[in-house]
Amino acid sequence: MTKVKKKEEVNQVMENIVSLSKRRGFIFQGSEIYGGLAGTWDYGPLGVALKNNIKSLWWKRFVENKDDMYGVDASILMNPRTWEASGHVSGFADPLVECKKCKAKHRFDQLAGVSSEKTEKGISWKMSADTICPSCGADGAKNLSEPSAFNMMFQTSVGANKDSSSISYLRPETAQGMFVNFKNILDTFHPHLPFGLAQIGKAFRNEIAPRDFLFRSREFEQMEIEYFVKPTEWKDTFESFVREMKLFMRDIGLNMEKVHELEVPDGERAHYSKRTIDFEFDFPFGRKELYGLAYRTDFDLKQHSEFSKVDLSYYDEETKERFLPHCIEPSFGLDRTVLAILTDAYTEDNLGGETRTYLRLAPSVAPYKVAVFPLLKNKPALVEKAKEIYKNIKNELAKVGIQGVTFDDNGNIGKRYRRQDEIGTPYCVTIDFDTIEKGAGVTLRNRDTGEQERVGEGELVESILKKI
Ligand code: GAP
């Protein structure tokens, strides 16, 4: 009974977040006017701003602030040999079952009561008495087919010929775009080990069961690093990325009590990894993978050397040795980051006797840091002064590289506060009659407490900068 209630509560929270995201212009269902396309989401203006803030904090921390990092932006379409070398053509598959009764297809490993065992022939799957078809409730043992391997790569054809020679794939991870450019970076920048490549971009997976809003979609963005080291030096680098990944989660304001490290055991790691830590996050629907950190050894460079017949080794001038560097890979899902931030920030409270919903976003990621209003929109003197103050804050913040100042005169002041609270704007500046008649400064309102303080016009920018 309690389990059912909990599920309903979770659904309600997720529904509220999806609905706020749509109502306020963060995220819409993909191709909504045609009834949508499962597993796709479109970002609106505030979603784009939130995503850009996350990307820019990531790029600053992992690329701009480093001397040993090289940014790339590789093509989504790659030579199909890439995916043979990486192991994706033969092994990037989920177990698919079909219900004989209702014909629904499911990802077998996500059904209740299903367990797996690694055998010499591959993975062997078992179901229990709890396993049923989630669509029609039919008994799993009697109605579900044997699981078959369903490759998750989206296939397409390149050029006018539509035969087997034209087959290509939309990349399922950004990582391979970096491995195939390893030699280009070596030849053009001549870096010494250790050094890394970084990339932010789209990835595509034909997920059998996209679900939980942005959590599992078919088109999403990744932010990945392939960091190359001497084989003996992987352990220290791995540990230092554990620390840096946590610092990044702090940069974006995630509640670190909801973040958990999971040492992925032998037998459960991806084929290329000798050690993996998953950073899991307490989403409303459970504790799930947010990011991964993997020690990929020299697997990828070795495979690409073999398949491309191009030497991808590194020559160490000090030791006069030639070898394949080993690779540490921190991998971040951007849309999962957006979801973690939204679910973490979504708050309902009681302010001044009224229930309100607001997003407790960190100023570093909030689409708007400051909203500026005239108390009344039909008093030209108030509007003129508010516009002047708005422009001044916008210019001054831009000088120190901060974007996200907005002017709002829609509806009454109460409605504006509620709207800005709902989109997570940390501070609101209101220009009232005391501002223009007595030179008494403006009110600066704090989103989380609803408290307002009077701040002199001359101190306003400094006061905002201190707070954000
Ligand atoms: N290059 C390694 C790699 O791609 P992964 O664990 O398959 O590893 C990395 O994916 C990250 O990408 C995940 O931790 C997650 O944040 C994100 N991700 C993976 N599949 C996703 C999906 N279907 N929808 C949204 N994000 C996804």
Protein described:
- With 468 residues, the chain is of the alpha+beta class.
- Helices cover 32% and strands 28% of the residues.
- The chain has a 7-stranded mixed sheet.
- The model has no long low-confidence stretch (mean pLDDT 95).
The hetero molecules present are: glycyl-adenosine-5'-phosphate
| Share of helical residues | 25-40%
The strand line-up of the biggest sheet is: 3-11-12-18-15-14-13
Query: Largest beta sheet, briefly?
Result: 7 strands, mixed
Q: Using the alpha-carbon principal axes, give the shape.
A: globular
Class derived from helix and strand content = alpha+beta
Q: Span from first to last CA?
A: 45 Å
- Number of helical elements: 14
Q: What is the overall pLDDT average?
A: 95
Radius of gyration: 26 Å
Q: How many DSSP-defined strands?
A: 25
The low-confidence runs, each spanning 5 or more residues with pLDDT under 50, are none
DSSP strand (E) fraction?
A: 25-35%
Descriptors:
468 residues; five-stranded mixed beta sheet; seven-stranded mixed beta sheet; alpha+beta; binds glycyl-adenosine-5'-phosphate; globular; single chain; 25 strands
